[in-house]
Amino acid sequence: MRVPVLTYHAQNIAGNDYAGNDLVAFGEDLRLIDDLGLRIVPLQSVVARLLGRSDEDLTGCVALSCDDGTDFDVRDLRDPTWGPQRSLKGRMDDFIAERGADAQPGLHLTAFVVASPMARTDIDAQCLSGQGWMSEDWWAQAAASGRFAIENHSWDHNHDAIRFPGIAGMARGDFHQVDDRERARAEVADAARYIDQRTAPRRTSLFCYPFGHVPDYLLREYFPRHGDEHGMLAAVSDGACPVTPASDRWLLPRYIRGWHWKSPQDLEAILRDATGR
């Protein structure tokens, strides 16, 4: 098993071409993956295989994820600067319409969302356009569609855009501050409960470290020792390599669009190297 996990941020819109727009890149990347003869599978299937809960053959497979949970994940919106934008969901629909549902029957996207409504309001106001584009009313429908999973990106991202103080005195803007059980419970377990209530009967099982910051306490203590409390099966960060049988379940690697690849040629090289195709 050597499965590259590709990650997008739908709100990354700095133009209407591949280089400056994760939405445009996502649409083109779906075609590239298909052209290379690779198979898209849910990230949850990769985790199940890693943990020995499945014997599915994942040779030549790719998994897709997106971070932060903005409405650009599922809704076509008008960016104030760059105009109308087709969502990630819309790009998936376009791919199916163009190539047929049989082209990628496992087409699936894992969306890591921020739980706290107040945090999302502040992040939206400071980092997006202040138009309520980090809502939660789409989570349940997306999760029920079979094309999406809604997963845990923490309670509040410990984001520095948030007006109210950090949990248990945490300095904002640094997720490494999650260094004890009180903070871990608030950022992981409380977030899971909130998201699960809104996507029931589906439940979260994967965590994504905000900012790519991996606190040693979460990695070494909280995740492996307190599973009954947080309910997570694995956690993802960056790492720029494929998931293999040797991967640490609490530090699964991903490739980040705009960082690890910036062009279709970059991605093709990644995919060929990762999968051996």
From TrEMBL:
The cross-references to Gene3D superfamilies, in alphabetical order and at most eight, read: Glycoside hydrolase/deacetylase
State the Gene Ontology BP annotations: carbohydrate metabolic process
Q: Which residues form the NodB homology domain?
A: 106-220
Q: Its Gene Ontology molecular function terms?
A: hydrolase activity, acting on carbon-nitrogen (but not peptide) bonds
Source domain of life is Bacteria
Write one Pfam family the protein is assigned to: Polysacc_deac_1
Name of the protein this chain belongs to: Polysaccharide deacetylase
Species this chain originates from: Dokdonella koreensis DS-123
